[in-house]
Amino acid sequence: MDGVRDLASALGTQRACDALAVPRSSFYLDQLPKQALEPKPRPSPPRALGAQEEQRVLDVLHSERFIDRAPADVVATLVDEGVVLCSERTMYRILEAHGELRERRNQLRHPAYAKPELLATGPNQVWSWDITKLRSPAKWRYYQLYVMLDIFSRYVVGWLLAHVEDADLAEQLIRESCDKQGVAPGQLTIHADRGPAMKSKTVSQLYVDMEITQSHSRPYISDDNPYSEAQFKTAKYRPDYPQRFAGYEHALEHCRKLFPWYNTEHHHSGIAFLTPEVVHHGRAAEVLAARQRKLDAYYAAHPERFVNGPPKVAELSKAVWINPPEDRARVEMAISAPPVRDASPLPAVPRGSSVSTENEGAVATANGVGDRAPGVTLENARVSVSPEEARDSRAATANEHDGSARC
Fold first, then answer.
1. Do 96 and 54 form a contact (C-beta atoms < 8 A)?
2. Which residues of 210-237 are buried (b: 16+ CB within 10 A; e: fewer)?
3. Is residue 20 part of a domain?
4. Residue 74 domain-assigned?
5. Per the confidence metrics, is the pTM higher than 0.90?
6. How many separate domains does the chain show?
7. 354-356 and 362-364 as β-strands: parallel, antiparallel, unpaired?
8. Does 128 fall in a domain?
């Protein structure tokens, strides 16, 4: 507007506004004196409470009888006694005017649970486990599938199928899985949700005995155990997954096919489309290098088909997190200086070998696919038993049926 004002003194207001494409009405409005607009005080309606009445309401709300009760409760109690001071909404307005609008009720405050932040830079550093239900032929009856997963390699290190969710079965699965993977004391962190078996005294004592770090999801937080949940989705979205299993043997046979496929054939998008077995046993670099050589050879033969330059294979993540810190500096520091852990590959196991324990259960050490132990399988092989019988017997030996239990 200053330019229009300077030009208007020589050419006139209309020509100056036309020359600078400024509406004359805007120019004239800008010339008006600026008056400070002060908000007008809101008039008090004639039906409002007076100062003494407001103080009486505050005194009642501050009294020992009503100090921890909500306005709605206060109003209802006083009306029952024949005392009417004001409405519930008026009480809220008075509290707000005095800066006291908050939760007044005396109720239990849940503790603030810390978000679990777990880092794995190699196999057998952090495991995640959970229990999912498999539908049985009878309505509202389920088989319980326990699955133990390495979050770095997505390798299923152990699984168990039972009729019930039981802490003793979970303890046996964890112990046998750690033995077969050669986990050293102080090496492993195991993460789980807050289910009865996960929080049981039996499992907690096992963690203490084996020097395993225990981690749990926060209550009512569905994504604190993402790797186990994702593995369950992969398993239950397979085309051969039935709506219901015809019986325990049917479910057992399905799991015996599922987990070898998952570990040795499934190319996982979270691990550069490698199989969990390849990553878990330290052969990721070798496989990725072979892929790159094949891509380089194809590029050399047909460079015109790659407008963005030579193709590159996907890189395997160097670190896998459960809830990475929001502070990027903390993430980089944790990755650059991870805790010292033994992540050496497992020793080779002869094909088809199996070991049975003398306690309730059986352990399979190989499934004839590859030459390394794919993990542990504990199977409740009782086909038709009640939950009470299954709880008493825990896990019957799988070799009652076929001589060995295989992953």
1. no
2. bebeebbbbeeeeebbebbbebbeebee
3. yes
4. yes
5. no
6. 3
7. antiparallel
8. yes
